[in-house]
Amino acid sequence: MGGVTGGIVNTAMPTAAKDISVLNYALTLENLEATFYVRDHEVTHVNFLKTAISALGASPVPPCTYNFPDTDVKSFLAIARALEKKKTGVSAYIGDAPMISIL
Question: Which end of the chain has fewer CB atoms surrounding its CB within 10 Å, N or C?
Answer without folding.
Answer: C
